[in-house]
Write a structure and sequence with these properties.
The complex is a heterodimer of chains A (206) and B (568). Chain A has 206 residues and is mainly alpha-helical. Chain A is built from nine helices and no strands. In chain A, α3 packs across α4, α4 packs across α5 and α5 packs across α7. With 568 residues, chain B is of the alpha/beta class. The chains are: A mainly alpha (206), B alpha/beta (568). Chains A and B meet through α1, α4, α7, α8 and α9 of A and α2, α6 and α9 of B.
Chain lengths: 206, 568
Amino acid sequence: MSDNQVSRRELLRNLGISAALAAPGARLVSAQVAQHVHQAVAQEKAAAPKGEYTPKCFTAHEFKTLQRLSDLIIPADDHSPGALEAGAAEWIDYMAGNSPDLAQIFTGGFGWLDHQMQQHHGVDFIDAKPEQQTAVLDAIAYKKNEMPENAPGIHFFSWLRNLVTDAYYTSPIGIKDLGYMGNTAVSEFHVPEAALQYALKRSPFA
Amino acid sequence: MFQIQRSPQVHDVVVIGSGAGGGTVVKVLTDLGINVTLLEAGPMLNPVKDFKEHVWPYQVDHRGVGPHAEGYFGKSPWAFGYFAAPNGYWDVPGEPYTVAPDSKFRWFRSRIIGGRTNHYGRISLRFSDYDFKPYSFDGLGTDWPVSYEEMSPYYDKAEEFIGVTGTHEGLRTAPDGKFLPPIAPRVHETLIQKACQKLNMPCIPSRMAMLTRPVHGRAACHYCGQCGRGCHTASAFTSSQAMIFPAMKTGKLRIITGAMARELITDDTGQVTAVSYVEKATRTEKKIRCRAAVVAASACESARLLLNSKSSRFPNGLANGSGMVGRNLTDTTGYDLSGFVPALAGLPRHNCDGIGGMHVYIPWWLLDDKKKDFPRGYHIEVGGGFDMPQIGFAHGEEGYGSALKSKIREEYGAWVGFSGRGEMIPNANSYCEIDPTTVDQWGIPVLRFHFRWSEHEIKQVRHMHDTFKAVIEAMGGKPEKKELPEHGVDAVSVGGEIIHEAGTVRMHDDPKQGPLNRWCQAHEAKNLFVADAAPFLGNPDKNVTLSIVALAWRTAEHLAVEMRKGNV
């Protein structure tokens, strides 16, 4: 916390406003509970014997496939944990459970991937070797590769990547990965000189 | 069946609508000790409950995309996202409007105390001297019966009351005002300023209705950048928090929420005697008697109310002997372009939330350029920085894996965006009228819109495209791949999308040319006033809200004087 930050709770108390900022229609959870995924998932994991999540929309096979795909799309690296740890699969399962349109896109996509893998290697996507999995992704992760035989895969992968990145970058882990430092109350707005000089040195105005 | 109930009490002034115009009239009249009854079609606003300020996306189970993933299928019911302040939408259930076959128009309605001021961008620009005399300036449009000199004291009052940041620049296209201290430019905004310097364009501290100092009991900004979500400390201007809530404490204001105005009732002399409205909760029609009525329902809604107020004396609608009610409908032009700026890639992280929106902007700079192929001009709004990531943050990326993750991290905060907001010249093809066959859920006839951009606006938007590219390139950036469509009109925002409708009940000294006189008072009904953007004679490239507040302030003071004199 830098010196000019004031506690939001303090700020609101001074103004006589309640710090309970419940938004209507939304279930709020604390940042700690939300560390991995939304409240229901966290509660369920806490209650389960091995701390495991049971998918609500997808089959166990589909859910495992989704977890593997989310790990491939945003993996853990030296900088931060990845989409697996951020609970992307749980969030997508939750959203698909509330949207038949979304569920169809995902179950259809998992089916398409398994079928491709079966045709080429005789196994489902989740059971294929890592290099076989990435070979499929290399073909469907770019629009420029679009051909009639992989168009459904490209369409699905675009949806998948959108939802995995949404889940990741709206999670505490993803927000930390980006280094977003706002959403707080400060008494003064200030631009660090180091940041300004960094950009100016690299700009045409150096 | 509707039960018509009459209220025996005669109310001093009935104000219809609680946005920038209605809020100002309520404030000014109650300050002067006049009793006001405010009709609002929506509910009361409760900021503590309604504003989602400081909520993280992961604190909401659907994270903002909608409980049923509506946002993924283009069906989001929120115009500015789930986290925005309650603000209305272009489609309101049970309240349709129609659009003529050759036209495109989207009509935004906000049904809540405070109206659109609960969420608006708060860009607060004075109109220039030539904006009030457009016909004298270049032969297009119609001169206002009011000049900049007459309006300037009211701009002073408006700025001093709502609180507007800014600096004195001495530009004719951006008249100076009574400003609060400006806010420092963010890193990308400094680069934009330097690019503009290179291109001979002004890029000055923005003029925004956010408090960099405490004003009238409202706390100074705490720089979280979330003004659009609604501000619990009222540090961003809203008519609800800054005008209506304080007026409620005076004992001079009575508020009737859930009241949809149906028509204004007049007597044989043409005076407004009562307002008829539908009490939504009971679907009962009620009448409230008044000494004077101020219509501030938003430009098109105010026109609709007058057009629906027909009587033997006013067969074409109240105060519409000129036939000009509904005519001269304008919106602002909009065009956006973004670009990636390598100099910002990997920028050291810091909190750059600041005030919600831009800290600098580019006022129109080619007023005296004789070579350009369109009249008037536009201003440019800038975007960028380390925003709080939201749903859709990385949509459109390609690839996967470590490369994708690193690219997103590297490019975070390295994109800049430019939005042009330009003047539309009123034209004969753009107006609203009563649809002859369609009514809303209360049986009130709805509006039918006719709207077309002219060559002026199409050429202006082409100029925006070239300019934004030039600025991005001057920063060493790469503009997004975006070509202007074959039909230039497709590049311009759809009419109504920028939500700056104006002109539909215009002022004019000649009763044949405009329904209102220079005091926004109806020529044909002396106790009827209009206080939103409907009285405007043009729609300059300077967002309407500050001028709505200034003009409504002047109108309210005039009404108070006329009431004292016994003329109203």
